[in-house]
Amino acid sequence: MANQKSVYMDHSATTATDPEVVQAMIPWFSNQYGNPSSLYKLARESKTAIENARSKVATAIGAKPEEIFFTSGGTESDNWALIGTAFALRKKGNHIITSGIEHHAIQHTCEYLEKQGFSVTYLPVDESGKIRTADLKSAITDGTILVSVMFANNEIGTIQPVKEIGKICREKGILFHTDAVQAIGNIPIDVGDLNIDLLSLSSHKFYGPKGTGALFIRKGVRIDNYIHGGGQERRKRAGTENVPGIVGLGTAIEKVTRNLEDNSNRIRVLRDRLLDRILSEIPHTRLNGHRTDRLAGNINVSFEFIEGESLLLLLDHAGIAASTGSACSSGSLEPSHVLLAIGLRAEIAHGSLRLTLGRENTEEDNEYVFAELKKAVERLRAMSPLYADYLKKRSRHV
Hints:
The protein is α/β, with parallel strands linked by helices. Helices cover about 40% and strands about 15% of the residues. The longest helix has 22 residues, at about 260-280. The protein is globular, with a radius of gyration of 22 Å.
């Protein structure tokens, strides 16, 4: 096993920190370690580094630097966006609208807000995973204060009609938040053009360090503080800043957006080649999510008559890193709420596999993954009583 090939196809879970990003971060751990809240030169250098990173993030999404607030990651940004705006606006109304396929950072936060007296509408999605804007319009009431719909789904890769959602919200005077954790680095984003009021992002999804993220808050948006303490982040988010992480985030987002179109196109071509082979050469397989309006590197397929966890173990044994869905819920035995929401039966949802390609993947990786995947599916079906029953029933009708 020492010479076994290793292929990483779980980029939606996390990405390797880019070597250039690591190099940019290193000085801020040891030589330039000043606390940005202090006044001496060492501290001012840290403060300048933070502001430089803030400008890079703002440039990447078409925002102003003063609208960018650094956080510990996408989960904190999502929590802050929802809880902060809900409590700031609760005298205006108590109704929030979201979708039925949000990441748990949104879903569970909405459930928490329901316990605090807020009303939440969970919009259904069609079989491709998109919300219907007609449903959004119908759900809006006089008490609606916030709409939160993710930019692109972390499991099935489907991209939502964000611009249309933003337009509806802007016309109704309702705040629009989008969890763009999966979209940054994959899709060009201009918060002004898309009428976005709040946007969450996470560094480790686009070759930056873990534990660092940001929340875009459009100037003029009322939002309560989520973390209380000192006066950091213009008195909005307390706590000594993670200077190395922030520098890394800024470096990563600048690099990933510089070559975004070329990288996305190359990854999309690789994705389509692998996906087409899976769908055409492995029987009883279905694609989950929209065929074209999806993240460039995302493949989510379901294999009938097998169990996804067993498939993952065989792929792992072959040196292939993949997922059955969201990394944040991979310890759960429950079928994916996203796959159930698009209409899959529980037993089909349990047989799902997510492969997410990144910029280092190659055609050679594709060949290896397909060969091992086909072999693993055949092996598991050979042991499956369900598949044996299917073959018996089919033989009777031949």
